[in-house]
Specification:
794 residues; alpha/beta; eight-stranded mixed β-sheet; 23 helices; 46% helix; globular
C-alpha cells in the first residue's frame, strides 16, 4: 500500500508536469500545505489519550512515523515528477521544430521507431519508401544551425535504409501533419500528436552522420522483422498475411479499407498490435523452452527474449508495458513470489513515464494501462456470471468485456464509435490467437532454417512442413476476418458517439471508481449507485463549466463556411450552416458542449447566423430544427425561397430574428458581431471581435462579386467552397481556412493532395500562406482557443 502510494504520486506528478496542469513551484506550495495538514492529523491521532489504547507503548507512535515517511516520499515523488514532466515538454518558439513549419530545412537527430520499407524485405531501395520518427537535435535554416527539439515523422524514398538509434541528417519541407492521412484515415494528426510528433517531412536527401555498428539490437530486430515479413508473405495470400503479421509481432501493413473498417467496428483491430495477451503467450513459450534446460538462469534468457520480441514489434507503448509486466511476472515465478498486478502496472508506468513523459498523452499507453486495470478488476467477476459459455470462449469473453468497460470512454472520444458486440467478436477470435502466433513464428523459423541448410533435400522437407502450418494459420486468420465482417453486419454492432469529451470521460471514470470502491467495502447496491451518480454529475458540472476562453471550430466534412463558436460564458453559436444537414448534424454533436448532464442529449445552440440567401447557405438549417435556437441573425436583404422558408421555421419555433446590414454591430455574450459586405446581394460576412481578437467568416459564393475584406490582423479568415481570392492584400490572417473545398471531403482526400492544391484560393495563396493555409477537406477541423490577446490552435 505504501509503495503503491509513492508510485501513484510519481506518475501523477509526471502527468501533471507534462500536461502543464501544475508547475513545480505551484506543486511545491500545494505539497507543503498537504504535508502540514497530514502531519497535523497524524500528530493528533498519536497524542496520548487521543484514541483507543495501543497494544504496546512502542507501537503507538510507530504508525504515524511510518505514514509520515510515506507522505514525505509521496511529496518528493510528486515534486520530482513535476520537474521531470515539465522537462519532457518541447519548448515553444525557436527551440522547437514547430517554429520552422512551412520552411525547407535540414534536420539532424536520432532515428526512432523506424518502420519496414513499404516494399518489404529485399525491396529495391530506389522504389521503397521508409518512414521513421526523427528526434530532432539541430535545425539548419538558411545556413544557421540552431538547437531545436521535437519529433518529426520523416518519409524517405530512394534512400538507404536507416535503423533505430542511428544519427542522420535529412532535408525537406516541414509541414503540419494532416488530419486525414492518405487512404482516408481520419484523426491522423491527433494520433501523431499523442505520440509526440509535431511535424512531417518528405525527405529530399538523407545522410547518415555515423555508420551503423556491425551489430546492434535495432539492426538485429530489423533483420528478424524483415525475415518474418518475407516468410509469412511468401506462405500466405493477402489480406490474411497482413493480419497474421499483426497477430505474430504487431507488424502493421496496408489493409483494404473494407477490412480495416470491419476490424475497427467489430472491436478486433487490437489483434494487429502487440498486447499483454501476446506477450504472455511468448513469455510462456520462452519459459517452457529455457527454464527446463537452464534452470533459474533460463529466466534471464526468457526476459531477454521478451525484450527482443518487443523491439521486433516496434516497441510501442502497449508492447513495452506488456514486456515490463511480463518480465516482472517471470521473475516472481522464478523466485516463488506472488506479483501484485496493480503494483506491477504502476512500476511499468513509472519507468515508462520517467523515461518519456510524453507517453501520458499516447493513446496506446492509455489503452494498455486502462485495459489491464479493467481486466484485473472485472474479468473474474464477469467470468463467473457467464458460466453458460464454454471454455475457452468464456475467459476470452470476460477479458474482452472487462477491457472494453475500462476503455470505453477512450474509444468513444477518439474514434466516435462504440463497438457493442466487441466482446462477442473477441470471444470467438481470441482462442485462436495462440495458434496464429505459434504458427506464424514456426513459419518464420522454417523459412530461416531452409535458407541456412545447404542440403536441397532438407530444404524441400522443411518447405513441405511449412504447408500444413501455413494452412492452419490461414484458416485462423480467415476465421478472424469472417467474424469481423459478420459482426459488423449485425444491426447495432457499433453505435456512433460523437462529442464524447472530457466531461463525459471524467464522469464515467468517477462513477466507475465509486462502484469499485463500494464493492470492495461491501456497501449496499443502492448506496453505491447513489454515490456513483453523484460523482458523475459533479464531474460533468465541474468540467463542463465555461473556461472563460473563446473557442471557435471550423468544421471539416461540410460545405462551408461553417464555424461553431463557444463564447467565454459558455453560450454557443453557429455561423454559417452549409448545404448539407446530414453533414452538419454530426459536426454539431461533435463540437458543441453538453446541454444536459447526460451523454447523447441534444447540444445547446443559442444562436445561428445565416450568412447568405442561396440554397447552399440554407440547406444545413434542417440540422438545427430539433434544437431550440434563441437568436437567428440574417442579412437584411435575404433572398431565396429556401433560406427564407428555413428562417421562417426557426422564427416559428420561438427564435428572435435579427436582420443586419453591412456595418451593423450586435453585442452578444461579451462579443461584438459586425456584419460586413458579402459576395452577392443579400449576403453578409460575419466578423467576430473579442478584445484584440478578430475573426471573419465569409461565404463568397459568387465569383463575379467578391468583397474586399477590411484590412487588419485576423486570427482566422474562413472561406467557403465557392470562394475565390477575395483580395487579402491588407489582411494579415493567422489562419486562412478553406472549408470543404470542392476537391474533396474529410473522409475522401483529393487525389491531388500531394501536388498543388486544387482549390482556386489554395492555388493563389499556398505559396504566400505557408502553414497558415488550412484546408478542412484534407486537414480536418481547425480548433482555435483564444483569450483577449490572441489565439492558439488546439
Amino acid at each position: 500500500m505504501r509503495a503503491t502510494a509513492v508510485l501513484l504520486a510519481w506518475c501523477a506528478g509526471l502527468g501533471a508536469g507534462y500536461l502543464g496542469v501544475l508547475t513545480p513551484s505551484r506543486g511545491l506550495a500545494i505539497v507543503a500545505v498537504a504535508f502540514i495538514a497530514a502531519a497535523a492529523g497524524l500528530w493528533l491521532i498519536s497524542r496520548p489519550g487521543a484514541g483507543p489504547p495501543a497494544p504496546g507503548e512502542n507501537q503507538a507512535p510507530a504508525m504515524p512515523a511510518v505514514w509520515t515517511a510515506v507522505i514525505l516520499l509521496a511529496a518528493a515523488a510528486i515534486l520530482l515528477g513535476l520537474v521531470r514532466g515539465q522537462a519532457g515538454r518541447v519548448p515553444a518558439g525557436p527551440g522547437s521544430v514547430q517554429a520552422y513549419l512551412g520552411q525547407t530545412v535540414a534536420l539532424s537527430g536520432r532515428v526512432e521507431a523506424a518502420a519496414l520499407p513499404s516494399g518489404g524485405a529485399g525491396a529495391n531501395p530506389a522504389a521503397a519508401a521508409q518512414s521513421f520518427q526523427l528526434a530532432a537535435v539541430e535545425v539548419d535554416a538558411g545556413g544557421h544551425r540552431v538547437a531545436a527539439a521535437g519529433a518529426v515523422l520523416v518519409q524517405a524514398r530512394g534512400h538507404a535504409e536507416v535503423f533505430d538509434g542511428q544519427r542522420v541528417s535529412v532535408r525537406g519541407k516541414l509541414v503540419r501533419p494532416r488530419q486525414v492521412a492518405p487512404g482516408g484515415i481520419t484523426g491522423y494528426a491527433d494520433r501523431l500528436e499523442r505520440q509526440g510528433v509535431i511535424a512531417e517531412m518528405s525527405a529530399t536527401s538523407l545522410t547518415a552522420l555515423d555508420p551503423p555498428p556491425a551489430f546492434s539490437s535495432g539492426r538485429a530486430a530489423a533483420a528478424v522483422r524483415a525475415g518474418i515479413v518475407t516468410a509469412i508473405r511468401g506462405a500466405l495470400p493477402e489480406p490474411e498475411a497482413t493480419v497474421v503479421l499483426g497477430e505474430v509481432a504487431g507488424i502493421r501493413g496496408a489493409l483494404p479499407a473494407s477490412v480495416d473498417s470491419d476490424l475497427v467496428q467489430s472491436g478486433l483491430v487490437h489483434i494487429l498490435a502487440i498486447s499483454g495477451i501476446k506477450v504472455a503467450i511468448v513469455a510462456g513459450l520462452l519459459q517452457a523452452l529455457t527454464i527446463p534446460l537452464f534452470g533459474r538462469r533460463g529466466a534471464l534468457l526468457a526476459i531477454a527474449g521478451i525484450g527482443f520480441y518487443t523491439v521486433v514489434g516496434g516497441a510501442t507503448a502497449s508492447a513495452l508495458r506488456s514486456a515490463l509486466m511480463g518480465s516482472l511476472g517471470l521473475v516472481g515465478a522464478v523466485i516463488r513470489r506472488d506479483t501484485d498486478v496493480i503494483r506491477s502496472l504502476l512500476v511499468a508506468g513509472s519507468v515508462m513515464l520517467g523515461h518519456r513523459p510524453a507517453l501520458i498523452a499516447d493513446l496506446s499507453f492509455q489503452y494498455s494501462f486502462l485495459g489491464v486495470l479493467g481486466i484485473h478488476l472485472f474479468a473474474e467477476p464477469l467470468a463467473q456470471r457467464v458460466r453458460i459459455v464454454p471454455q475457452p470462449f468464456r475467459e476470452a469473453l470476460a477479458v474482452t468485456l472487462a477491457a472494453q468497460l475500462a476503455t470505453l470512454p477512450l474509444t468513444a472520444h477518439y474514434f466516435a464509435v462504440v463497438p457493442l458486440l466487441s466482446p462477442l467478436a473477441n470471444g470467438l477470435v481470441l482462442p485462436g490467437l495462440p495458434v496464429a502466433i505459434v504458427g506464424g513464428l514456426a513459419i518464420a523459423a522454417l523459412h530461416a532454417a531452409t535458407g541456412l541448410l545447404p542440403s536441397a533435400l532438407w530444404a524441400r522437407v522443411l518447405g513441405s512442413a511449412t504447408v500444413p502450418v501455413a494452412a492452419l494459420v490461414f484458416l485462423v486468420a480467415r476465421g478472424a476476418l469472417a467474424v469481423a465482417h459478420l459482426v459488423r453486419l449485425i444491426p447495432g454492432a457499433a453505435i456512433a458517439a460523437p462529442g464524447f469529451g472530457a466531461p463525459a470521460t471524467a464522469a464515467y471514470y468517477a462513477a466507475g471508481a465509486a462502484v469499485v470502491a463500494g464493492q470492495a467495502r461491501r456497501w449496499p447496491r443502492l448506496r453505491i449507485a447513489a454515490l456513483a451518480a453523484g460523482l458523475a454529475l459533479a464531474a460533468l458540472l465541474v468540467l463542463g463549466r465555461p473556461d472563460g476562453h473563446l473557442h471557435l471550430v471550423f468544421a471539416s466534412g461540410v460545405t462551408g463556411p461553417v464555424a461553431v463558436l463557444v463564447a467565454p460564458d459558455g453560450a454557443t453559436m453557429l455561423v454559417g450552416t452549409g448545404s448539407s444537414a446530414a453533414a452538419l448534424g454530426p459536426a454539431l454533436d461533435a463540437e458543441l458542449p453538453f446541454a444536459a448532464p447526460l451523454p447523447g442529449m441534444p447540444r445547446r445552440l443559442d444562436a445561428v447566423v445565416l450568412t447568405g440567401g442561396g440554397r447552399e447557405e440554407a440547406g444545413g438549417l434542417a440540422a438545427v430544427a430539433s434544437r431550440r435556437v434563441g437568436v437567428a441573425i440574417a442579412p437584411e436583404g435575404l433572398t431565396g425561397a429556401a433560406a427564407t422558408s428555413a428562417l421562417a421555421r426557426v422564427q416559428g419555433q420561438g427564435a428572435e430574428v435579427i436582420r443586419l446590414r453591412p456595418g451593423d454591430t450586435v453585442p452578444w455574450h461579451g462579443l461584438d458581431l459586425v456584419a460586413r459586405a458579402g459576395s452577392g446581394p443579400g449576403d453578409i460576412a460575419m466578423e467576430i471581435r473579442w478584445g484584440a481578437v478578430r475573426m471573419l467568416v465569409l461565404s463568397a459564393a459568387d465569383p463575379g462579386n467578391v468583397p474586399t475584406l477590411p484590412p487588419g490582423d485576423y486570427a482566422a479568415v474562413a472561406l467557403g467552397s465557392g470562394a475565390v481570392d477575395p483580395g487579402l492584400g491588407g489582411v494579415n490572417a493567422g489562419a486562412i481556412v478553406l472549408q470543404a473545398a470542392a476537391s474533396g471531403s474529410a473522409g475522401a482526400p483529393p487525389a491531388a493532395a500531394s501536388a498543388a492544391p486544387a482549390h482556386p484560393v489554395a492555388r493563389g495563396l499556398a505559396q504566400a500562406a505557408g502553414d497558415r493555409l488550412w484546408e478542412t477537406s484534407r486537414d480536418g477541423a481547425l480548433r482555435l482557443r483564444c483569450d483577449r490577446s490572441g489565439c492558439s490552435r488546439g
